[in-house]
Here is the input.
Amino acid sequence: MEINIQTQIWEENDKIAEQMSKKWRAQGTFVFNLLGSPGAGKTTFLETTLDILKGKYRIGVIEGDLFTAQDAQRIEAKGIPAVQVNTSGGCHLDSGMIKDALERFDNPEFDLLIIENVGNLVCPAEFFLGEDAKVTLLSVTEGEDKPLKYPLIFKESSFIGITKSDLLPYLKYDLSKVEKDLRDLNPKGTIQKISSQTQEGMQEWIQWLTDQIDKKKSEPV
Amino acid sequence: MEINIQTQIWEENDKIAEQMSKKWRAQGTFVFNLLGSPGAGKTTFLETTLDILKGKYRIGVIEGDLFTAQDAQRIEAKGIPAVQVNTSGGCHLDSGMIKDALERFDNPEFDLLIIENVGNLVCPAEFFLGEDAKVTLLSVTEGEDKPLKYPLIFKESSFIGITKSDLLPYLKYDLSKVEKDLRDLNPKGTIQKISSQTQEGMQEWIQWLTDQIDKKKSEPV
Here is the structure.
């Protein structure tokens, strides 16, 4: 019985996600779902990204979190419209939450919509939100075993950022093993070392992102 | 309908957990549930703990993970009996899994049983496994906002280890804020800075743990 209900939940989720995906295609909005462990550096990465892209595109952010509104406040402080979605303890966002969140923007027509998911390497990977790409951050302080321990999320990501690379000199960390495991799981995705402190990799990330935004805008509906 | 099923799942979980708790009381086994984000340092902390306590107590370890058996192999390399439980993508252990895992030990009578849960700050906090204590690790690289973002797990923990303290010199991290937020959430629990690299806090942790083990052994059934 439990399995059937889970299947129903996924089917219902995917139906709404497909509707939104269609709408975003018509609007030319590129949407990415930002994933990673608690503390992988998602919000800081997002802040740096917004500092660079602000004024160049119409951007909106949906911030998923269990209880607090801290992250949306950090984004709004940048002058970017942000809507907070609280899951009240739930470990992931679903497409119904995103649909409701969109209605809370004054003007929800964006070139770029970013959805920062709940910090978690498991459940968020299982719920499609209608996004064009999953972007997953994995910090070097999390240890080398994470790609093989949480394969689904890394398999499904179009861009994987290996964050906090500025801490590598202070860690025992076999970066080449992590890169190899990620590549084995995901032969096509972009894998990039990132540091929000030193800005390592940010140029490559912004290049990747703007390519996606421009491509989406120019695609026929 | 979904909510009722969730309540049923919890009731069934708690029933089995209570049975095991009773059994462990009769055996004088102290049991802790080790929690934390992916990469908080749980398995390394466990390895260090086992190096110190090995030979002094009869110890068993249950390792929860989504797919791999890497962690159980790391524990068995220490000569400690370990059983791997794979959740096949599930984000937490439940008491039924622990009951089954116990049957896989040659001799499941321990002074100390350690259950390393799936790396996650959300779901594992919601499932009681019959343990005496929850021990939660939070690494300094995860950022200062985690206690308020994941309050349940920190509220329920008897011991909170702030790990990777050797990295503090290289981070912008307001330790006193984190300690204050933890203390506000959890006035009674022990909060301890820990480093598996420098051994900071390990003596205090081992003292706390052995006190619990000895107390449990001496308690009347």
Observations:
- Chain A has a mean pLDDT of 94.
